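Q: Could you write out the predicted structure for this multi-component system? I'm mainly interested in how the pieces pack against one another.
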Amino acid sequence: DVKVTQSSRYLVKRTGEKVFLECVQDMDHENMFWYRQDPGLGLRLIYFSYDVKMKEKGDIPEGYSVSREKKERFSLILESASTSQTSMYLCASSFISGKWGQGARNEQFFGPGTRLTVL
Amino acid sequence: KNEVEQSPQNLTAQEGEFITINCSYSVGISALHWLQQHPGGGIVSLFMLSSGKKKHGRLIATINIQEKHSSLHITASHPRDSAVYICASRPIIQGAQKLVFGQGTRLTINP
């Protein structure tokens, strides 16, 4: 079974702190994603990485950065946390779409989420 | 702009009822995903569709590519089906890697 793990389930930080959220997957997936989920807004993509050291901005990258030094690990960084970044953060991973041919599932596998509160 | 719309946003039903959740999308897609999220946050993939119909236990997913519409059905619903159900499209025009998500449908099944 694919396993995607996140470093914390719950995190409380203060405004202005630097925050690191870690995500690790064990299925040798090329793609990794960071989302935030807020009531009424659904899942929104923050950043996406399709290879080591490669990253692409999602829909809401402002205030965030990412790091992917190893294939299995994708980190989300809040340089200076703000109260507007209080949210549920979800990491996901997948194979490159089409890697295994037309019939491949190419689904995204999600971690359990980190509920971040910024005071 | 690609958008994914789900309806209803909230659905409450009695145990045993037949449930339908709808999903519409606005651009051509390579695949449509249905996801389930239980309280506590974990998301699991239920189906990935590119055409026709798929069935897994009491869950059935259908897609009509021409109408850009998909439905998720639950037969003989049970309180353990209570969760948020999320539809997500994989648009062709944005590249094959990213998903565009609907806002989710919160389903509550009462005993």
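A: Regarding packing and overall arrangement: Chain A is about 0% helix and 55% strand.
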